[in-house]
Design goal:
homodimer, alpha/beta, Nitrilase/N-carbamoyl-D-aminoacid amidohydrolase, Rossmann fold, six-stranded mixed sheet, 19 strands
Chain lengths: 545, 545
Amino acid sequence: MKIAIAQLNFHIGNFAGNLAKMLDAVKKAKEQGADLVAFSELATCGYPPRDFLEFDDFIRESERTVKKLAKAAKGIAIVVGSPSRNPVIEGKDLYNSAFFLENGKIKQVAHKALLPTYDVFDEYRYFEPATEFNVIDFKGKKIALTICEDIWNIGNENPLYKVCPMDELIKQQPDFMLNVSASPFHYESAAARIHVVKANVKRYKIPMFYINHAGAQTELIFDGGSIVMSSNGKLVDELPYFKECIRTYDLDEVVKNKKNNEQPKDKMALIHDAIVVGVRDYFGKLGFKKAILGLSGGIDSALTAALAVKALGANNVRGILMPSQFSSDHSVNDARQLAENLGMQYDIMPVSGIYDAYMDILKPHFWGKEFNVTEENLQARSRGMLLMAMSNKFGNILLNTSNKSEMAVGYGTLYGDLCGGLSVIGDVYKTDVFKLSKYINRNGEIIPENTITKPPSAELRPNQKDSDSLPDYDVLDEILFQYIEQQQGPKELIKMGFDEKLVRRILRMVNINEFKRHQTAPVIRVSSKAFGMGRRMPIVGKYLS
Amino acid sequence: MKIAIAQLNFHIGNFAGNLAKMLDAVKKAKEQGADLVAFSELATCGYPPRDFLEFDDFIRESERTVKKLAKAAKGIAIVVGSPSRNPVIEGKDLYNSAFFLENGKIKQVAHKALLPTYDVFDEYRYFEPATEFNVIDFKGKKIALTICEDIWNIGNENPLYKVCPMDELIKQQPDFMLNVSASPFHYESAAARIHVVKANVKRYKIPMFYINHAGAQTELIFDGGSIVMSSNGKLVDELPYFKECIRTYDLDEVVKNKKNNEQPKDKMALIHDAIVVGVRDYFGKLGFKKAILGLSGGIDSALTAALAVKALGANNVRGILMPSQFSSDHSVNDARQLAENLGMQYDIMPVSGIYDAYMDILKPHFWGKEFNVTEENLQARSRGMLLMAMSNKFGNILLNTSNKSEMAVGYGTLYGDLCGGLSVIGDVYKTDVFKLSKYINRNGEIIPENTITKPPSAELRPNQKDSDSLPDYDVLDEILFQYIEQQQGPKELIKMGFDEKLVRRILRMVNINEFKRHQTAPVIRVSSKAFGMGRRMPIVGKYLS
């Protein structure tokens, strides 16, 4: 028996587009001699459909797509993820299902039992968990069909669920496991997936075909990396990361396989590729081509520009240099050098005139008050407004250039440098911004050396340095990582050896700036805990603040 | 037996403050002769604690608060909501629990079984559902103790859960039901709660004491309105809305009660009071006193100002009038009149100079391009920046004045009139903005008559009217209500008699503007479906767009 994995990039709510893509893949799988082709979780409607699932019309469109796809299931069987209705009145109205299509019809439906409801996942918001489990008979083989999280309750020390779907299915003696997933990227997710697939294969002693989605949906990047594993735990194949791919495997050969074919997993390379796909799909799926961003001469905007050029092409990225009286000479030079290295268009717009116009109006009202963060914010906001005007006039999208460290501690101006339609590096700590910039320069200078080596500064007052108001990024980022990604509290951080006063100060900065993050652009997620939909914090809380 | 209901306003993460408030209430309940005093759901840590629950330190603080409160349970028993740990490895690590404290100790703990995970609720994100149910023996009576959603699976035609905790508890023959809740306001929630309490009382034929939280947590307003219902379904008492209150009831008298004591429920009065509490608590819980807002002479900013003055006092609200060349004469006069009626400070800052400064820089780059939404946005953004500068310099919070209709269709400028720390009327449709304004004026003119009667306009180009680009608000709001609150799709809307082209256009406007709403301030929720945490939509979707 030959099984095809169709690792594709779906678009939420684009039923016609998703169907066309699947019909094309069915054709290709047939050409590859496949008896069965499998698509990823909720492939008909795209993942995550979020509250669109609450619309009957959206479910009807999903059902129609399954029916149309079923007609193509001739000479080949198809497995496709799609929402389905729960006929029982009690419980949620929907299931997260995988349809088995054969001979032009729906032959069988499997429902998801383990519904991830943590971090970026909200599945129990929509779906009823399955309580019945049946293998699928196909051409003399029995298939244990599960959906994503269904296989994730083993292989970890603190299982989230009391049931384990494969424990039920294995009683019916399946020949292999087929798991349809939509598993989003973070820089350790590919390794985690292999670990979980291996834990399942070891426990149930049959091969697994694991199909993932590939492509970005706003903040979530689905990295592909679909897995075929033999029953002896060898990695027969790991499909490309971040790319669409259709590959067919002979079940007998998978069973006999003795080789490991794992892809390399370099953290910076993965983050780089994830962000590039994140930017490319954000623009592509919204129907935009061109981006704009401010270039300060600093490393954050330089890195963002380099990533955007990689994603959209140099012709589609425009940089705006907006020096003020506080900008150093090298800032403009560094920004100009970057734009030239990248081959992208740039304009220079000095902002002092705008600042003066604001101050003309505000001066009488500010009488007796000292220069403070207000005037710093005004500069940042003047720049934000110019960028938005260019974005509006030329119909492009403004990219936000804030990094995770500054977003965490609120070191950024709301409606100023926090403007933008998409936060490109908002899930990358400053220490990793440096590493990623060096990765960009791995084959020669793209980001100017001076941009990488000079001390970070917002240049909003004379001779300002980040280190005037923040601890060294090495220390700051480690505290932030422990607090944000690892959920460690003050007691645990102090036990790790961090200074108590510093810990209290940093955690307070993170917590009192929740209101800013509430209003910022969606952040491309590359870590296990990004700001945005996966981190839900109260604003009026009074905790560690 | 005498039972005290303590309907209090807790603060998320403010363990010391919440404990002090409860200790004071225990004292008052004792003075009222109570044998038992009950607090609301998750009272120790405040509701909703959201992802703070993922921090071990936060759970330890909750546990400490319960222990300290237990020491006060002498001569009186206490029921208090608090998170507790699940000792079993499988499943989520926490329960949403209610502790029964007696004789200085924890006597018994009940866990929540039905975990709301829809709209603004995320409880399955954190909690394991209860599977065991036991009544509590206290002074010869048996108490069926449940938590909020536990009683909501009956009284509706499409129950969300397969189990019903009271169906289990009733087998142990309890004498009365005690339900500790944190049930957020929308303008029909008080009626819905009475309906559900009555459905329970009718089914189980014993009285119910229902304790709600009172006060605001950012977007969620908890409206109190705690309920005491006799076993014959009579409303013995409904506690005040939006206010703290401690009242004690004699169980024997509750059982015998024959009167209905329901509060009046006027939609505009409820919305008014909810928003006032929402503004007051947002400021109070963040430690701010003063607000600022732009006054355009239009009805949205006038209504927002009136509500803010009611919440914070006239001395704490400052209005900024920012006329441009497109502002009509009456705009400034109407805004000035409003400020005078309200007795609040106002300043006038003409914005044309700023607009000109931007255009000086942008003109060469805009060469050959026509005046369009870019220039309109620049005006709105110049105003936003001035307001933010005043907010920063004087340490007050900018109030956002956008209404729900314009937020829905994207009729507003990101970083312009969409600026602000809190959206005051962002869940009020324009047609209700008029009604609420008339309600404000019920005892005499506060909002100038001309502001209410003139045709709505953004005044961003000569003689602009909202009706140039939008259908009449009567029609628009009804389509929006059906789509947003009622989840009706295009097919259903057309069946209702709305023009197909108009329906498609409006739904498209709603969907393509998701990116704007993603970046706006938290919205005080007054309807069953507000923008924000309760409505989670994809940005890159291609559905009805």
